[in-house]
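Hi there,

I know you've been waiting on this one. I reran it after we fixed the sequence typo, so this is the corrected version. Both the input and the resulting structure follow.
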Amino acid sequence: MVVLSSWVWTAILLEHNARPSQTHPLTRSKAHFSLYVLLTFLWTVLAAFQFTEVPRACANLVNISDKPDLGPISCVPRIATGVIALLLSILSLLTAIMVYLDRGREEEAEKRFA
């Protein structure tokens, strides 16, 4: 659910991106900054959740030692999901920083078109 909603909301904001003459609230950098701060938080929480479940999932490797093919099925997806969520969290944080640093350009554009 987090993935789908983040992709949909990002697509909506991208539709309203780079339109300094518009007065729509979604064209403001504050909306973009808020989204990426929220996504950073959500992806960090999801990564933390996945990484806290890794020891329990990997403990199944010992419990099913008679069936070695089933061990990675329970362990590897948790690790992969956690790594991907952590990468998306870092990318969201970097995007939020870039939007924050770029807010001066928006203020100049507002002065020009006002």
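Quick highlight: The mean pLDDT is 79.

Best,
R. S.
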